[in-house]
Amino acid sequence: MNVATTLTACDFDEIDRISREELAAIANQIDEERIYPEDIIRAYGKAGAYATHAGGIDGNVDLSSAILAMARASEECLSTGFCVWCQDTLAWYLASSDSDFLKTEVLPKVLKGEALGGTGMSNPMKAMGEIEPMRLKGVRVEGGYRVKGMLPWVSNLVEDGYFGSMFHVDVEGSDTPKRVMAIFHAAWDGIKLKLDHEFVAMGGTATCNVQCRDVFVPDAYVLGDPAADFVKRIRPGFTLLQCGMAAGMIRNCIDLMKQVEGPLGHVNKYLDKQPADIEAEYDALVAEVLEMAKTPYDLSDAFYLRVLKARLRGGELAMEAAHWAQLHMGARGYVTRGAAQRRLREAYFIGIVTPATKHLKMLIAQMEAA
Ligand SMILES: Cc1cc2nc3c(=O)[nH]c(=O)nc-3n(C[C@H](O)[C@H](O)[C@H](O)COP(=O)(O)OP(=O)(O)OC[C@H]3O[C@@H](n4cnc5c(N)ncnc54)[C@H](O)[C@@H]3O)c2cc1C
After folding, report:
1. 235 C-beta neighbours (distance < 10 Å), count
2. Which domains does the chain have, with CATH numbers?
3. How far is the CA of 151 from the centre of ligand 1 (A)?
4. Which atom number of ligand 1 is nearest to the Cα of residue 202?
């Protein structure tokens, strides 16, 4: 697939140039020194990477360009590809909301990469699936909510950044708390960020522990109260966008395998999987993802199930492709700066980031049993 011909609304030549000239040059440094490539994240914004999927629920919205731009970044570095997803997802929440304030005051800056941020929805998504308890709790006060608690990881987050998350609010006379989803501004009083980079890879993601101490969330920042309808609206797009990370990872692993066909093909041909095998699965996956990208606001269960299956396959194929890239490249890929070992460590992130492989399998099993 030629991604360059598929993108129209964002400047894919510029995204390609940034990825090839600027990002590729520092991918190892991002991995080793855990530096956050803020300039590159902002430059992608100037090139339109975050701006093509935010037409709003009534607009003619297509996620293809966003997914392909994210894939191009992920081909070089998954930390950066994940930050692109975080920024895309923040834009997705804002554009999908009914809040004129958020759409006029915050969204335009996010689309251009002038304001950065992401999402703290892993814990709420797992809480909604009854996998773990909700970490943020809110109480109603005049003009908004006061929220406290701690989110362990929010990526692509800087001191004046934004993120979407959710909190529980106790309801009088009911055992079941209400769920409220809102945008948080990291600069608000009571929010403290602490960088957490103790990971085997993905250290360039500006991932923070976010402590909330009686943070006032004004009503204007609320996305869904109660959150159920809004979550239903954003969940297919949220999940489908992540396939950009998988596509970029798989594409690069195929290229790594092909790179050693000359010197090692005579023996690599005995390996069970060849680049052409992975490529055939990649083409089918990308075609399915780009087809679904045209209707991200399809709220039917049938569509969401299809999205979950593509996301699951994307994660599995990314991990498989990285495994075969390592075996094809051999020792060349196993040295400290070898691409294959970095891709292998990064690829597992696609399998564990929410919705993780196990969470996806649980959701698919539940939907198929219903
Ligand atoms: C690099 C990175 C960036 C991330 N960025 C974001 C983000 O931007 N937004 C977001 O919402 N989430 C983020 N996450 C979280 C991610 O989406 C997943 O929730 C996480 O990887 C675990 O998911 P899981 O379903 O495999 O849960 P599991 O790993 O099965 O369980 C997770 C639970 O285990 C416990 N736990 C976690 N770490 C430890 C530990 N060291 N020791 C003991 N118990 C522990 C916690 O209670 C946690 O909730 C990030 C994670 C990583 C590694």
Report:
1. 20
2. 3-116 (1.10.540.10), 118-226 (2.40.110.10), 229-369 (1.20.140.10)
3. 10
4. 1
